[in-house]
Amino acid sequence: MAEQWGRSGGWWRHGPPWPGRWDEERPGRWPWRSTVLLTAFVLMGSTFAAHAQEGERAALDPFARVLLVVAAGVLLWRQRFPVAVVFGNAVVVAVYLGAGYPYGPVLLTVAVACFGAIVAGHRRAAWAALGMLWAAHVLVAHWLYRWLPPSGDAPASWTQEIVTATWVVAVVALSELARTRREQWARERAERAQAARRRADEERLRIARELHDVLAHSISVINVQAGVGLALLDSDPEQARTALSAIKDASKEALGEVRQVLDTLRTPGDAPRAPAPGLDRLPELVEQAASAGLTVTVEGEAPRLPPGTDLAAFRIVQETLTNVVRHSGSRHACVHLDQTGGALRLRVDDDGPATGADAGGSGNGLAGMRERAAALGGTIEAGPRPDGGYRVLATLPLTRKDDDR
Q1: d(CA 365, CA 166)
Q2: 77-113, pLDDT tens digit by residue?
Q3: Which of 120, 204, 264, 317 is the most buried (most CB within 10 A)?
Q4: Is 365:212 a contact under the CB 8 Å cutoff?
Q5: In this structure, how many other beta carbons lie within 10 angstroms of the beta carbon of residue 22?
Q6: What pLDDT was estimated at residue 10?
Q7: Which of 370, 366, 390, 368 is nearest to 380 (CA)?
Q8: Is residue 70 scored above 90 in pLDDT?
Q9: Which whole number is the average pLDDT over 326-348?
Q10: CA-CA distance, 339 to 342, in Å (whole number)?
Q11: Three-state SS for 245?
């Protein structure tokens, strides 16, 4: 135990290297080394104590040495049976002191047993064992000393009892401090693990949103163009060739964006090779929508946006136009951009009518848009318009709340 406290400066501030480590041995293994070292220390130290207390206390005999070995040896089970060990140690030490043998390192075994029990969560058992030992010592020192060795012994002074009680309180206080620190380390480990899981979940959701937005838009364009190409393959080969070119461009763009997402997974922490898309690529979305038979009108100009807000606005427009192509009978949509009150108001309207129950994109697409807006402190409103058609209204703050602090 002394060896362990000698190294305490390294892990006292940061916690033990693994849960429950209070000895140099790993959990699940028997603490042989510390027990053997402590037993040797108790035997040698008690020999010196016997010489120093010669004439005052009984000399060490074989029975005394057996008691010393047992008091230290039971500590081998302190990790597996802390309650039995602390009571067994207290009984053996009480017999040792009641027999009049010298005070000395044997009391260290009591401290170790009590420490192990309290740290393991058996506080009442440790307190009860220490109280029993102290009561036995008071009983022997002030009443039973007449019939116990050494002969001619006088009653102990109450000053000595106060010192003994102070020692007991110090052992309990130190053990309670160690227990508190251990619980604190356990909470910190749990909080770090929970934070890591939360970050992993957030990253997984972010990647899922990116892949959904990229693939849903591109595959929708490819699906529409493939239908056009098949319908015109015989009657209008030139128009079919145009549709195939649009399929090629859409698939190339999708592959590039998917590759960019995958690159961030392979090299975490590195800067992306290509800038994230933003509203400056809005004309590309308009062109792709036009190739799918949807006419898009853009009203207003986007202000200069932070990268995260710019990406979120682009993905929201992209997902909304994709939903119009897939789920609406309208062939016209309007994208309106406006900056009011330190926020970007982004509205996308289509004339309808809906061609399915999920006309507004009630699945992963709308959920992803709401998650993007919520991550920036913004909102998404989506629903039918009073005069027909469907509307998606996004409000994105130009400055995130945590950027102001």
Answers
A1: 69
A2: 988 899 999 999 999 998 888 888 888 888 889 888 8
A3: 317
A4: yes
A5: 20
A6: 41
A7: 370
A8: yes
A9: 86
A10: 7
A11: helix
The answer to whether the CB of 321 falls within 8 A of the CB of 375 is no
Which residues are within 8 A (CB) of 83 and not within 5 positions of it... i.e. 6 or more apart?
A: 117, 122, 125
Residue with tokens 């698939």: 251
Report the side by side order of strands in the sheet with 379-384. 295-299, 332-340, 343-350, 390-397, 379-384
Residue of 165, 167, 145, 130 lying closest to 57 (CA atoms): 145
The structure tokens listed for 74 are 């039971």
* Dihedral over alpha carbons 88, 94, 100, 102 (to 10 degrees): 70
Tell me how crowded residue 278 is: count the other CB atoms within 10 A of its CB.
19
Residue with tokens 């356990």: 186
In terms of C-beta density within 10 A (0-12 exposed, 13-18 middle, 19 or more buried), how is residue 94 classed? Answer: buried
Handedness of CA 284, 287, 289, 295 (dihedral sign): positive
Question: Would you say 164 and 131 are in contact if contact means Cβ atoms under 8 Å apart?
Answer: no
Enclosing H/E stretch for 327: helix 307-327
| Residue 58: CB atoms within 10 Å | 18
CA atoms of 253 and 214, how far apart (whole Å): 9
Structure tokens at 168: 């007991």
Rg (CA), the chain: 39
Burial class (CB in 10 A: 0-12, 13-18, 19+), 200: exposed
Please state, in angstroms and as integers, the Cα–Cα distance from residue 23 to each residue in 2, 9, 200, 209, following that order.
Answer: 10, 15, 34, 48
pLDDT digits (tens, 9 = 90+) for 295-332: 899 998 878 888 888 888 888 888 888 888 877 777 88
DSSP, collapsed to helix, strand or coil, labels residue 349 as: strand
* Tokens representing residue 45 in the block: 């130290």
Distance CA 135, CA 93 (A): 12
| Residue 160: C-alpha distances to residues 110, 138, 155, 257 (Å) | 18, 10, 10, 80
| Rounded Cα gap, residues 121 and 180, in angstroms | 10
- Give yes or no for a contact between 100 and 58, defined as CB atoms under 8 angstroms apart: yes
